[in-house]
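Worked example 3. Consider a protein that binds flavin-adenine dinucleotide.
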Amino acid sequence: MDNLIRILRSFGEGEEDKTFTDSFVDLLKNRVMTNVERMYEVGLKFQNNRVIFPPPWDSIYAGLKEIGFFKRFIPVDYGGSGASEESIYFIMELLGYTCPSLGIIFVAHGRAVDVILAGRDEALKDKLLRRLGDGDFGAIAMTEERAGTDVSAVEFSATRKGDYYVFNGEKIFISNAGLAGVYTILVNTKGKKGARSLSVFAVEDEIDGFRVDLLPEKDGLKILPTGKIIYENCLIPRENLIGDEGKGLLLALDAIDRGRILLAGIACGIACRILDEIFEYSRKRIQFDHPLTSSQDISFKMADMYTQINAARGLCFHALKQVHSPYYRSASSQAKLFATQMVMSVAQVGLMIMGGRGYFRNNIISMLSGDARGMEYLEGTSSIQKMIISRELFKSYT
Ligand SMILES: Cc1cc2nc3c(=O)[nH]c(=O)nc-3n(C[C@H](O)[C@H](O)[C@H](O)COP(=O)(O)OP(=O)(O)OC[C@H]3O[C@@H](n4cnc5c(N)ncnc54)[C@H](O)[C@@H]3O)c2cc1C
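Given these inputs, the predicted complex is written out as structure tokens:
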């Protein structure tokens, strides 16, 4: 981990608030990294619409609150500490290294913050953002049974009734389901298919008719709550509409552009961890009277891994510099595409270097490869990233 911190710091990451970074790294080393394998093994439980994390989640959560972690995602005007994009990236890569599930929890959380920030009702923004800054979690819910890659197919119905909208529908695969206190939801307010029918709402979890179902166990990201959220005749006040009716998809996609860079950062963190673990393993594993690291083939494989990781990180930093430019969408998709493919290939080579031991489940590399695979689906699959990149590229030619 110290290697990774040195690399990130050499780019100036995490330097803006050294006190926070030092406490954060301390928490990761002493409470997260030492317990992550056990937490993954025990997994999540679910009771009364709420997810229950394995120990020592309470201590990790308390530590994060104590160092002002939740406030970093919230602008100063709403009671937060307004960390820069680079600083959030630094956090995400370290979470990828230590506990990718926790990284995704906060990517989803941050997307909810971004969506709420796009709203116009200052009272609502102030209330929800302060709640999230004080330690509650956010979620972003777009996917449905029939609206996966094609988000414009969202059918979740929100029908206007006086000062309320009546919500009826289900969202699936939602990160932070049963954990979040605030859900940002893409709904259909016009009753017909198409992007212009979609609107976004921010809704708190304490409503009649709302329930959560945890989905079956995943191949990785074992302590990321991923569930179904269900609304039956829920009355949602008009003020909870974020932005204009019919403009919800654009708003949600803007938030997702930012999320893609952070997911790419988590992928880089996972890959760094795999490389560190593989180095340690190869150093100790003796064959033909020599450690594996002395084989040129193995050392070249590690050289390739290292180069690929740095190339992916380079794309992330490039994307971070494009935040206000017209190339942002393409740059963040490129970073996500490359980094998520890179981490899967790093994981595969890592498992191969472990020989037969890599085939058994209870090793850290197989745990991380399950996490690596999950990165592909979040915020759009690789095919979707290619669609975005080619569309933006063709636009730039005309
Ligand atoms: C762990 C996890 C967490 C998630 N968290 C969230 C969340 O918090 N919020 C949320 O809203 N969603 C979430 N999702 C859902 C995720 O965004 C979707 O799984 C993803 O968008 C793909 O949709 P789908 O699974 O329905 O696949 P499908 O849309 O059925 O696609 C299946 C395959 O076909 C490909 N494909 C589809 N259409 C095309 C095309 N036109 N051209 C070429 N290829 C195509 C896709 O790339 C994919 O490989 C999560 C998913 C996972 C696994």
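Take a moment to read the result before moving on. Residues 250-397 form a domain with the Butyryl-CoA Dehydrogenase, subunit A; domain 3 fold (CATH 1.20.140.10). The chain is about 50% helix and 15% strand.
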